[in-house]
Amino acid sequence: MDEKRYILLTRIAIVLTVAWVGWTIFDSGYNELEPGTYELDAARNNLEDGRFEESLALFSAVYKKDTENLGALRGMAQALMQMGAHAEQPAFTLDCYNQAMSHYNEAIEREKKREKTPLRQRIMGVAYANRGILRDRMGDYPGALSDYDRSMQLEPEVVEGPGFLTRFMRNQAEKPPTIADRARYLRAELTKPENERLLRIPALDARQRAYGMD
């Protein structure tokens, strides 16, 4: 083996060793994650995969340990909203929706009292978007429109809807309606006489998905 190649291989070995040692230190807890991080990630994965009851259980467990974790509270609301949407019994759907609304209301009011930062503004924008979707499903169309408008003011990116990667993970070939689409539609319909309004189109509404967590 010539000297230049030997030096190159030696340097590569050193770099790989340093990288391995660094990862070992990181993985052993040197850079510890916040409590509940793994549970929240698992809960979000369950939510995306349609395992809503498992998702709710994980979000609830995190929130029970730390009632300051508003991400877990919003997660509970989102899981309940999805459980209600997929339930076959209207009474169960209504119960899930009512619980979800209570959680969203609490999370939004408590978030308002926290320090205003760009991250908090984004979180609030997504929360308003999801509460708007819930209000929409519950038939509170003026309330849904109000939340959609507030969401778009706080976090303009929600207008774009889920990106290609998110849709790929959800197996959504077509881009679903965004809250901007829905807001325009509701605004137009609500200006019509009540007997002429068409506020729900089940085939189209079923394509609307809640927005991602914080």
Task: Provide a compact summary of the structure.
With 214 residues, this protein is mostly helical.
Content of β-strand: under 5%
> What profile does the largest beta sheet have?
none
Distance between the termini: 54 Å
Number of helices: 10
Number of domains: 2
Model description:
The longest helix has 28 residues, at 3-30. This protein is mainly alpha-helical and 214 residues long. The protein is 70% helix and 0% strand. The radius of gyration is 22 Å and the shape is globular. α6 packs antiparallel against α7 (141-154) and α7 (141-154) crosses α9 (179-190). The protein has 2 domains: 34-114, Tetratricopeptide repeat domain (Serine Threonine Protein Phosphatase 5, Tetratricopeptide repeat, Alpha Horseshoe), CATH 1.25.40.10; 116-214, no CATH class. It contains 10 helices and no strands.
How does the SSE layout of this entry go?
Blueprint: H1 3-30, H2 37-48, H3 52-65, H4 70-85, H5 90-112, H6 118-137, H7 141-154, H8 164-169, H9 179-190, H10 202-205
Defining traits:
single chain; 214 residues; mainly alpha; Serine Threonine Protein Phosphatase 5, Tetratricopeptide repeat; 2 domains; 70% helix; 0% strand; globular
